Amino acid sequence: MPVYNKLVRDKIPEIIEKTGKKYMTKILSNEEYIKELQTKGFEELTEYVEAKDKESSLEELADVLEIIHALAEYHGSSINQIEEIRKKKAVERGGFKEKIYLVEVDDE
Asked: Which SUPFAM superfamilies is this protein grouped with (predicted)?
């Protein structure tokens, strides 16, 4: 039996059950949950970086966004509040549309 030991989407056990396979799950504590969300975030970002085409890239970005939704909720917030913070930072500091790559700053 393969061992996964990772956070999965809520309907995964139901999907596995429909295949007739047996599985084992547990409910995480809050401390375990936030740690696993963070780990899952890195996993999904890595999958995005390794995506080979537009469709795969968009699928992985959707997974990253799902993690962001869960993290916002965990912190007692919402994706709307995160979006407002993003907009404020974009006004104050800009976005990344101009593709600016900072090489160095002479601080003398």
From this structure: all-alpha NTP pyrophosphatases
